[in-house]
């Protein structure tokens, strides 16, 4: 990886490590927006409208997280990669497994499972970034807080 520059207070090796972690998070943020939109389009059955309308704001939230993560990568001198093949190549989490039309309960259970991994991966990134770059860590910490809130919404909907 060739960095365009290094921010003051970080060396190149530290920046490269932080960028690699952030790129992984960017990939899952991008994928999560697609997964959520897929569920939005295909959810059916009881509570359809509640779940359908609950998903779109989360799509926007996750896309905003992706933008913030990409901008942090660029700030660190890296090049954020948003190509679909990069998302797949960077996947360290289980893919979302609901296809086509399905009921609200099935989609919410699958999304909760997806978010379990999403939040766990973000928390792991926070721990790693704490050692490298507290600014990047703080960004992902904020993302975790937002993801956990939506995770709560989904679990509460099924309670």
Automatic annotation (TrEMBL):
Descriptive protein name: DNA starvation/stationary phase protection protein
Could you tell me the superkingdom of the organism this chain comes from? Bacteria
Looking up InterPro entries in the UniProt record yields: DPS_DNA-bd (IPR002177), DPS_DNA-bd_CS (IPR023188), Ferritin-like (IPR012347), Ferritin-like_SF (IPR009078), Ferritin_DPS_dom (IPR008331)
Gene3D superfamilies xrefs: 1.20.1260.10
Q: Which family is this protein grouped under?
A: Belongs to the Dps family.
Q: Which Pfam families match?
A: Ferritin
What PROSITE patterns does UniProt report for this protein, alphabetically?
DPS_1 (PS00818)
Give the matching SUPFAM superfamilies. Ferritin-like (SSF47240)
Query: Domain Ferritin/DPS: where?
Result: 19-158
What is the species of this protein?
Bifidobacterium colobi
